[in-house]
Amino acid sequence: MSLTLPDGKRMAVAITCDFDAHSPWMGTMGMTSPSVLSRGEFGAEVGVPRLLDLFRRLEITTTWCTPGHDLVTFPDKIEAVLEGGHEMAAHGCYHEDIRSLDADRERELMELQLQQHQQVVGRKPRGYRSPAWDFSDATLGILEDFEFEWDSSLMGREFEPYHPRPVTVAYESANQFGPPSRLLEIPVSWYLDDWPAVEYIPGVSPQLGSHRVMLQRWQDIFDYAHQRVPNAVYNLTVHPQTIGRAHHVAGFEEFLTSIRALDDVWFCTLSDVFDAWTDD
After folding, report:
1. Spatial CA neighbour of 95 closest among 189, 28, 167, 6
2. Quick one: signal sequence residues (predicted)?
3. What CA–CA distance (Å, rounded) separates 42 from 240?
């Protein structure tokens, strides 16, 4: 298995934007107060334009993983993302907790979010990212049934795409792996995500995180991949309502500008990664 990069390129960098807006507060956290919803609104009305301007100036094409609820709530922002040439991927219906759903309900919500993609985006998404980056026992099979090409929710590798396998858990003997899925997994990492590092939530996050610590972590991980992992895929996740804050987006621009100056780095979408991947 290998990644075929454009001539002269050593590694791929995929910037992915989880455009959650209202959904994570409603779906994952069960919070609907005006205060938390206003944070999602900030992501749509302020964060999205700031990011689109940054990507335009740096000539970077990105993947936006967006719940169906936010597609229909902020369709003008979705139109702006698409006009910028960026990719739209599935990200749940309302950022639901996948683990709490039975298989029938999970399938119903998959059907609904795909209808919303068709309604707003005008086409089916090629890839999927699970809300909160977790699967149920049914998720992998549902993604295969709906003929997704790639997923970006799991963490079985760091810089290499792979084909995920279902696991049968046995506490008193070895866990058993099923056959590899035809789905290509482009792995994520909590270390390459802005939300847990700097999104302050009273009563949940212990303190305001340092964006400088976050940016240095991102740089350290990038440097390792760039120097030591040929054909690496560096998959970074940001949220408009988080990275869109003034001090965050200014630091993010510094980070991206430094990488953009390297001649051997290929900025791409997650579907570009899929298209460049070859199974032996």
Report:
1. 28
2. none
3. 8
The token pair at 27 is: 């779906």
What is the spatial distance between Cα 106 and Cα 90, in angstroms, rounded to a whole number? 14
The residue type of 180 is P
| Cβ atoms of 40 and 237 closer than 8 Å | no
pLDDT band of residue 34 (cuts 50, 70, 90) is very high
128 torsion bin: left (phi>0), alpha (psi -120 to 50), beta (else):
beta
* Chain centroid offset of residue 140 CA: 17
SS3 of residue 52 by DSSP: helix
Nearest to 19 by CA among 244, 249, 275, 251: 244
Residue with tokens 């939300």: 195
Does residue 280 carry a pLDDT above 90? no
The β-bridge relationship of strands 176-177 and 167-168 is: antiparallel
At residue 207 the predicted structure's pLDDT band, cuts being 50, 70 and 90, is confident
